[in-house]
Amino acid sequence: MNKNETKMKRGLKNRHLQMIALGGSIGTGLFYGSAPALQAAGPSLSLAYVLGGIIIFFVMRMLGEMVVDEPIAGSFSYFANKYCGEFWGFISGWNYWFCYILVSMSELAAVGIYVNFWLPDFPQWISALICIIIITIVNLVNVRSYGEVEFGMTIIKIAAIIAMMVFGAIIIFTQLGPFPQNFSNLWAHGGYMPHGLWGLAISLVIVMFSFGGIELVGITAGEAENPKTTIPKAINDVIWRILLFYIGAWFILMVIYPWNQVGLSGSPFVEIFAKMGIPAAANILNLVVLTAAISVYNSAMYSTSRMLYSLAKQNNAPKVFGNLTRSGVPALPTLLSSFITLIAVVLTYLFPQKVFIYLMAVVIIAIVISWFTIVLVHYNFRRKKNKLGEKTSFKTFFYPYDNYICIAFFIFVIGMMTQIPSMHLAVVILPVWIILLSIGYIIKKRSGH
């Protein structure tokens, strides 16, 4: 065995894991992508986040149970290969890599939108290119540099959300705003659920995009210090924090400003404070949402490089991607992933106004496939453990019923995507993508490498 292959560093501490899990999911989905969900659900968007959060917590516990039992880099792709066979390992790994390449692209598209808040005429593609260069350099240094950068950017996001919630509460209870502030905005514009259960169901699709990235904590297993203690803590703590930030932030916003007057041209957070005549708050929040987009791009680069490294170790990708630098970084997977995201620069040049929503649609499909795989693999994992009489230390609560609930929910989400015109393309792409992955697997098996 090449000694270079054994040097992946366990440089991520518990504080890094907490911020990585939070940072991966508190990004564009919350600050920008939630605007269409708000239009569909109105004030009941908070309920959609509760329902989606419960499902994601189930998925996180399933992933956590497997990762704590065997802390391996690449997490569920490795477990898919082990407990469901080579085909599922190949499919899940490449799908996850593809998914977070698309996440990277959507974040890059959002970066350009946020920069345009200050510089309306600045080309979005240039903003995206600058972001690619900086984050690629960060990820090539070592895993600690990635962890520290992500820790710092996530602290900024969390501090801003808390400050915004406090400021919003002051507006509500002191009448500081330009118009009367009371809780009537929660029901005065069509009711708490203005479009009924249908609107709530539609919003769940976009809400699930918001939670994309939370499973990143499982990818860190191969580089986490004391993973058997830090990963359970990160999973148990992060879910209620995310629910607090999402529900709390949106509740405040919907109280201080009519939900039906929020557009889709930028971040609802920035737009609301700008319309209320508080430009300082709007400028600060725009800086924060820009930081959030860069943060998620940073996490996406990390996760795609580690997944490609894991695929190489499983012989599901060229072996050259399994090499590490002296500092324990899979440099070639990082560079390849970064290079491919340059496609986003081209897309933002050609379609600056539409690229985000289209990318988001395809990302939701890829994320759902990844989560579905986690649920399926966990089901086989527990069944084998139970058959062998082996115990795990970080059990899910309701096996196998939570597996069934999650699978039904994901099928429901894909079904609802057929009812959203901008997401029809993603639904069509789903079977095509599965077929392409299957062909790739067949070629790999027949060629022997």
From TrEMBL:
Chief localization: membrane
One Pfam family of this chain: AA_permease
Domain (Amino acid permease/ SLC12A) ranges: 16-446
Cellular localisation: Cell membrane
GO-annotated biological processes: amino acid transport; transmembrane transport
Membrane topology: Multi-pass membrane protein
GO (cellular component) term, any one: plasma membrane
TM region(s), chain numbering: 20-38, 44-63, 97-119, 125-143, 155-176, 196-217, 238-257, 277-297, 329-350, 356-377, 398-417, 423-443
Domain of life assignment: Bacteria
Keyword rRNA-binding tagged: no
Keyword list, A-Z: Amino-acid transport, Cell membrane, Membrane, Transmembrane, Transmembrane helix, Transport
InterPro entries: AA-permease/SLC12A_dom
Family, per entry: Belongs to the amino acid-polyamine-organocation (APC) superfamily. Amino acid transporter (AAT) (TC 2.A.3.1) family.
Name of the protein described by the UniProt record: AAT family amino acid transporter/aromatic amino acid transport protein AroP
Organism, scientific name: Pectinatus brassicae
